[in-house]
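Researcher: Can you fold this with adenosine-5'-triphosphate in place?
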Amino acid sequence: MKIIGLTGGIGSGKSTVSRFLDELGAVIIDADKVGHEAYKPDTEVWREVVASFGRQILTPSGDIDRKKLGEIVFGNSESLSRLNQIMHPRMYDMVKTQLEEYRRQGVDVVILEAPLLMEVDWAALVDEVWVTIAPQSTVLRRLKEYSGLSEQQSLARIRSQLSSAEREKHADVVINNDGDLNELKSKVDKLWQALALDT
Ligand code: ATP
């Protein structure tokens, strides 16, 4: 089984690449979804998050409100690292268990889509790291279109993340998402073909 870690900056095209790979037959693990799973109500992680950040981060039905939590931790490195210390070990274990299950099932290719793959040192879980990059002006335009973020909000998020140059240094494959969706699709098709020859 080949495990590819797929990462990249905000709005660089990770989810789109992941969707193309899914269509080609890869199995996808989405770290964001693992995170949501990890802090479902009444799990240990949920209890620790509520103990750390208070009940004001809950929705009326008792779920963790990601937007409220995000507002608390974004731009506050102490809170962010407290949250990461709660979340990441649990998420790591969940991903590991899931990978073992896929290996047992005889899956050929797994894509671990994780925005923070490099920051949380999940590289040990994967055989190769693929990184999506896109010019900043393109990312700003896409973010404005799909998330309604202002240029200033987008820039604050971009600056809070690793730079593309830093990600490229640790990448086995760089996917430059600087064209239209057809171009991106054909880049992914080529990578998939090379992978098929390799496995
Ligand atoms: P996030 O970090 O916010 O989850 P992401 O890296 O997963 O973002 P995507 O969700 O794949 O990025 O892409 C962001 C938006 O840009 C989406 O609406 C997607 O459809 C669009 N997009 C991605 N690549 C292209 C492209 N090459 N041409 C046009 N639109 C694109």
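Model: Folded with adenosine-5'-triphosphate in place. Residues 2-198 form a domain with the Rossmann fold fold (CATH 3.40.50.300).
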